[in-house]
Structures are given as structure tokens and as C-alpha cells.
Amino acid sequence: ENDAENDLGLALKTRPKTQRPPMYKVLLLNDDFTPMEFVVHILERFFHLDHAQAFEIMLMVHKKGLAVVGVFSYEVAETKVTQVMEFSRRHQHPLQCTMEKE
Ligand code: TYC
């Protein structure tokens, strides 16, 4: 904490602005073609979710159109997006993964 003084000479307590790095949501988007089991596999492999959590998030995306998979620093979020996009492309699935500032 910092002490400050206003122009009446009164000591004030002010909070120093602690800068936290911005965090990024990683979003998974629904499509009509990617198999459900493939999405579950992606969530287990790249987001370290157990099978039940992975299945739950996959179903949420399937029903709602998209879901937040996790919240990460910029670098980690970007790595996850790249991993998902490359792995999906390599298996010829149109799965889309994006990131968004929180
Ligand atoms: N909608 C897909 C299907 O019915 C499953 C799916 C779920 C696809 C989540 C993408 O991010 C996704 N096979």
C-alpha cells in the first residue's frame, strides 16, 4: 500500500495499481462434421481433461454452438489453438478453435 496526501494535508491510503497480465479464453466451436469422439480426444489430449469433463464440454459445444475450454495466458492460449487446429486439419476435420481476451 502507498500513502498519498491530498491538498488539505490529509494522508490517504491508496491502492497501487497491480498490473495482472490479460487472460485469454480458448473457445471450441461446433460444426456438423467433426466426430464427437474426436472432440473428446482433443480435450483430453491438449487440455488435460478427464474423460467425463471432456465429454461434458464436447456436449455443451454440440448443444450451444460453442464453449470456453479454459482460460490461459496469451502464449499458452495461442499454443492450444495452434495444436487443436493443426491436429484437426491433419485428421481432415473442420473443427475450429479460437481465443478471445477475457
Ligand atoms: N456436432 C458434432 C457432431 O454432431 C460434434 C461436435 C462437437 C463437433 C463439438 C465440434 O466442437 C465440436 N458430430
UniProtKB/TrEMBL annotation:
Q: Name the InterPro entries for this protein.
A: ClpS, ClpS_core, Ribosomal_bL12_C/ClpS-like
Pfam families in UniProt: ClpS (PF02617)
Q: Which GO terms describe its biological process?
A: protein catabolic process; proteolysis
Residue intervals of the Adaptor protein ClpS core domain: 20-98
Keywords from the UniProt entry = Hydrolase, Protease
Keyword Electron transport belongs to the record:
no
Signal peptide residue numbers: none
**GO MF term set:** peptidase activity
The family database entries (NCBIfam families) matched by this protein are listed as: PRK00033.1-2 (NF000669), PRK00033.1-5 (NF000672)
List the HAMAP family: ClpS
Classification via PANTHER family = ATP-DEPENDENT CLP PROTEASE ADAPTER PROTEIN CLPS, ATP-DEPENDENT CLP PROTEASE ADAPTER PROTEIN CLPS1, CHLOROPLASTIC
State the protein's purpose: Involved in the modulation of the specificity of the ClpAP-mediated ATP-dependent protein degradation.
Q: How does it assemble?
A: Binds to the N-terminal domain of the chaperone ClpA.
Protein name as catalogued: ATP-dependent Clp protease adapter protein ClpS
Q: What's the name of its gene? A: clpS
